Amino acid sequence: MDDRRLETMIGNLLRIGVLLAAATVFLGGSLYLARHSTDRVRYQHFTAGGASMQSVGGVVKAATLFNSTGLIQFGLLLLIATPVARVALAVVGFALEKDRLYAVISFIVLLILAFSLIRAF
Amino acid sequence: MTALTFTSIVLVLSAVAGFLGSLTGLGGGVVIVPALALVLGVDVKYAIGASLVSVIATSSGAAAAYVREGFSNIRVGMLLEIATTLGAIVGAILAVHISTHAIAIIFGLALLQAAYQSLFKPEHDTGSVVESDPLGTRLRLGGTYPLAGKSQSYGVRNVPAGFGIMFGAGTLSGLLGIGSGALKVIAMDRAMRIPFKVSTTTSNFMIGVTAAASAGVYLNRGYIDPRIAMPVMLGVLAGAFLGTRVLVHAEVRTLRILFGVVVLALAIEMIVNGCMGKI
Questions:
Q1: Is the ipTM of this complex over 0.85?
Q2: pLDDT tens profile A54-97
Q3: 3-class secondary structure, B27
Q4: What pLDDT, in 10s, does the model give residues B190-208?
Q5: Does B211 sit within 8 Å of A86, measured CB to CB?
Q6: Of chain B residues 166-195, which have a CB less than 8 A from chain A?
Q7: Any chain B CB within 8 A of the CB of A98?
Q8: C-alpha to C-alpha distance for B140 and A99, rounded to whole angstroms
Q9: A18 — contact with chain B (CB < 8 Å)?
Q10: pTM for this predicted structure
Q11: φ, ψ (nearest 5 deg) of residue A40
Q12: DSSP-derived 3-state class of residue B213
């Protein structure tokens, strides 16, 4: 495993992740428009409503029920997960290259991301 | 407005933003927020949530191509991501506590900088170096990139300064829901003397990771509304994809000037509205 192969793997992982996320968002969006296209919408005032859309658990539950906004939000979670997976893969890649310094650096980035995302669970 | 009308308008606006953003290299996020806030009256908090999501999409979507060309430097990216992700968390927490008026004004200032860059950007190397300084050497940050068919090696300097600027770039990203690619490029190209092409592609590579760090806070606070983020993400992604296809043929200079003028107008609108408390 050299840097070049590692980078190609990471690049492909990112692309697949984005495509998967976009497909899920598109599916949820289509369902949403099919069911709610004539709803009146106003987003002038921020209301942090809908706890089911604000936690990973709530989103997954809504998505498995085939709730349209739940599916969209699940797709967005997939999207947020792609860079995280990228960092995780870099940790493994550097470890396989026996590059201890950069394995540790990548792991620190992963910890920071985990710290941020843990709030969402 | 019905959900169908809203979705259609946002989809078109986002596609145009993504298209222009990828052509000019400034990213789509920077015009999405003012477009949503000023044109459709969407609350800034929803707008920055949707924008942040689109930033991750374009960064991850474009990274695959850049990596294949061998420009981005993964070690530099990883090291500096420690700074940008920490900054992003700080920025996202600030965004929760600062008033939307203040966010609008800070956003306007960031837009002013983007307009300046679009209109008068120096697109040349600021002088890369072959040798790294001692810290750059110890961290093995130097690398090679393809130049005129050959592999050109380069060194990396001033790591602490680059790290500091990156923390600022991360904070701005988390506060405004943008990629802040311009500031990332300044940190690498100007401060650390990394070749321009390597700086821009590595910056693009880092933007997604930086944005993911504030996404947790945004999601938890309800900033990411699926009904708004859906057309923004799909539109920006489609526009950016189209942008990379025509990049080779387009007359970019004229587009940059056009984009710069639009961004300048948005900057003034945001600052005026923010000051008058309308946003």
A1: yes
A2: 888 888 888 888 899 999 999 999 999 999 998 998 899 899 99
A3: coil
A4: 899 998 888 888 888 899 9
A5: no
A6: none
A7: no
A8: 11
A9: yes
A10: 0.90
A11: -85, 130
A12: helix
